[in-house]
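call fold(seq) -> tokens
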Amino acid sequence: MSLKKLQQEYRETSTREIYVAAFENFLYGLLGAILVVFIAEKIDIAVLVAYMIYYFYVGKVVNRPKYVTSLGKFIVFPVPAALGAFTGYKLAQWLSLVL
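ret:
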């Protein structure tokens, strides 16, 4: 993975496409992390709702085209997904106190 290749792929990709993909990956990480916290806290109704939302969303993620560029594989997928997972972890802790 070279920096020049990433820059070229970034220039060739529309800003909207990058934002949409980053948001989808952020949401994917967020939903997965929320689920883990609710399971650990044993909040059954929250686990059920989180599973339903997560698996409906996984159906969308699985059926989208795979990332074939270095930009998608090394930036657009892992960074927003990790940020989403951390946000979901923190958000679920707060939600578990409220529920």
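The radius of gyration is 16 Å.
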